[in-house]
């Protein structure tokens, strides 16, 4: 019932910036945590950043100081501002929602977006 729609990926030069967006849709009352994960070719999917409904954030060490996660609870939307991008940031970025409470007060599990490609190359 819950769907995540991502946007904002693309091709950017090293040192450039991108802003990813992910909107959750459905009969949603609240979402405990939303986040971004990424998977590079031949690599395991890894956590990039998460944010709770209260605003608590968590970042992978590799992106600290460069990426900023934020969310709009009213819109059930999470953002990832990516600055000072490096070639090693190249990956498919996936949006995640965990602890989704429906309007009917039903707590549901993990949801994932379709992924959006981020390529950092000169």
- Outline: elongated
Radius of gyration: 14 Å
Measured distance between first and last alpha carbons: 40 Å
Helix content: under 10%
- Helix-strand makeup class: mainly beta
Give a count of the beta strands, DSSP E runs of length 2 or more.
12
Main pleated-sheet profile: 8 strands, mixed
Which consecutive residue ranges, at least 5 long each, have pLDDT under 50?
A: none
Oligomeric status of the shown chains?
single chain
Beta-strand proportion: over 45%
Strand/helix succession: EEEEEEEEEEEE
Q: Determine the mean pLDDT.
A: 96
Q: Please report the number of helical segments.
A: 0
Structural summary, described in words:
This protein has 122 residues and is mainly β. It is 0% helix and 58% strand. It has no helices and 12 strands. The chain has strands at residues 3-7, 10-12, 18-25, 28-39, 46-52, 57-59, 67-72, 77-82, 91-102, 107-108, 111-112, 116-120. Strands 2, 4, 5, 6, 9, 10, 11 and 12 form an 8-stranded mixed β-sheet that branches. Strands 1-3-8-7 form a 4-stranded antiparallel β-sheet, with no helix packed on it. It is elongated and about 50 Å long. The model has no long low-confidence stretch (mean pLDDT 96).
